[in-house]
Amino acid sequence: MGGRAAVDRQRPGPVTVTVSVRRRVDRWVPYGLVAPFFVLFGAFGLFPLLYTGWASLHRVELTALDRPEWVGLRNYTRLAEDPYFWNALVNTFVIGVLSTVPQLLLALGVAHLLDARLRARGFFRVVALAPYATSVAAATLVFALLFGREHGPVNWAFTAAGLAPVDWQNGPWAAKAAVSAIVVWRWTGYNALIYLAAMQTVPRELYEAAALDGASRWRRFVHVTLPALRPTILFTVVVSTIGATQLFGEPLLFDAGTGASGGADHQFQTLGLYLYEQGWVNLHLGRASAIAWVMLLILLVVFGAARLVRSRLRGRA
């Protein structure tokens, strides 16, 4: 009897079993909550990334996906020898610079104005964000009309000012400037609101102390606001660079008659347009995948440079 009682004392009771099960459930609940994200990321993020990496090493035609042919790095070496790829790369870089630099400078100015004590600040903030809410198709259509060669208001203004009209769609630099103007118009307000949110976290005591020292409004902006916004500025530079590298809708619709070629002489064909042309017009899915991976490598280089700059800024701080 004594031995049986000892065995019964060693068996876990119902309460002990319930606590153990509850602990196991609590341990796995967080994994269950985050699982949908990783499932969706694997299906729509990781799988396409790995598939395009595999396709970039094969000769894959969009009309014969079941007959891939191993070519190794041939798709990449062909890109290195392709003048249209280099043209698209240069166009992407030029349009990226022409659109990103003015866009961020204007956004800083707009945010600084919106940060001041204005009447109806909420209205002006909504107006600043309105271009971002406008569809790419509608914005590009309006700008295509504005930059029309024969009847565009921009050329009318040029003529009225005594300047020669510009062929905005066919000029190599004029076309890039026109496409950049669309990007600037759409994204300036969006970046301005990001800067405005960062400006409102700057302690007001710093401005008051600078004002007591006799600093002008411009000097307060340069010596107080800009240093406080360095991380935010770096973030917007990275995001704008990603957007510029993937630029597609604006150049595609600016001269819809030329399709994905980016103008009659490829004068504003970006990497995004060239990828689309190779994959969905010429049906070379393997070559298009190689372009996608080159774009990814470019962005990784940008991320690496941004992290380096950020670490140096932190070191100076």
Describe, in plain words, how this protein is organized in 3D.
- 75% of the residues lie in helices and 3% in strands.
- The model has no long low-confidence stretch (mean pLDDT 87).
- Strands 1-2 form a two-stranded antiparallel sheet.
- The protein has 317 residues and is mainly alpha-helical.
- The chain contains 14 helices and two strands; from the N terminus they run H-H-E-E-H-H-H-H-H-H-H-H-H-H-H-H.
- A hairpin with a 2-residue loop joins strand 1 and strand 2.
- The longest helix is centred in the N-terminal third of the chain and has 42 residues.
- Helix 2 crosses helix 14.
- The radius of gyration is 28 Å and the shape is flat.
Short description:
With 317 residues, the protein is mostly helical. It has 14 helices and two strands.
Average pLDDT works out at: 87
Q: Output the strand order for the largest sheet.
A: 1-2
Number of strands: 2
The fraction of residues in strands falls at under 5%
Low-confidence stretches: none
The total count of helices amounts to: 14
Helix content: over 70%
| Structural class category | mainly alpha
Distance between the termini: 76 Å
Tell me the Rg in angstroms: 28 Å
Largest sheet: 2 strands, antiparallel
Task: Give the tags.
two-stranded antiparallel ribbon; 14 helices; 3% strand; 317 residues; mainly alpha; flat; single chain
Q: SSE layout and pairings?
A:
Blueprint: H1 2-10, H2 14-55, E1 58-61, E2 64-70, H3 74-81, H4 83-115, H5 121-133, H6 136-146, H7 153-160, H8 172-199, H9 204-212, H10 217-228, H11 230-245, H12 249-254, H13 271-281, H14 285-316
Antiparallel strand pairs: 1-2
Helix pairs in contact: 2-14, 3-14, 4-8, 4-11, 5-8, 6-8, 11-14, 13-14
